[in-house]
Prior knowledge:
By secondary structure, the protein is of the alpha/beta class. The protein has a single domain, classed as 3-Layer(aba) Sandwich (Rossmann fold), CATH 3.40.50. It is built from five helices and eight strands, in the order αβαβαββββαβαβ. It has a six-stranded mixed sheet, sandwiched between helices. Strands 3-4 form a two-stranded antiparallel ribbon. Helix 4 (105-117) runs parallel beside helix 5 (137-146). It is globular.
Amino acid sequence: TLAERTNLAGVRHILLVLSGKGGVGKSTISTELALALRSAGKRVGILDVDLCGPSIPRMLRVQDSAVHQCDSGWVPVFVGQDKAIALMSIGFLLERPDDAVVWRGPKKNALIKQFVTDVAWGDLDFLIVDTPPGTSDEHISTVEALRPHQLLGAILVTTPQ
């Protein structure tokens, strides 16, 4: 659709951060990568699709921020004094950021699709997508929603056992 093309049209590269299990540091890697790219003068967005554990708003100290609507969808939260990192997370949509989200497949998949299509990212050099742990429907939904766009690739975060 036109909205899908326009909301991601200004995004040059999309990068998925994945892992086979939880607790390996995906959100930390996503956050540090965004900060490093910003330091290098890049325009960066983070899409936090970890619906059950949205930790990036807290890592970037914007957990009390609210998401607003504009004509082209949701306006991401801009982080830092220079507002150089755009962030969208389920954490902004919960009444209490520590609330657990217990949603079944169709509702989760619809929200992920909405996050991909309905966030007004503007012009970004990189969009970093922080995914939930494992390999689930959320990953398939994310990749399917992003399929029409040029994916840069994926970072697989692992830890030795």
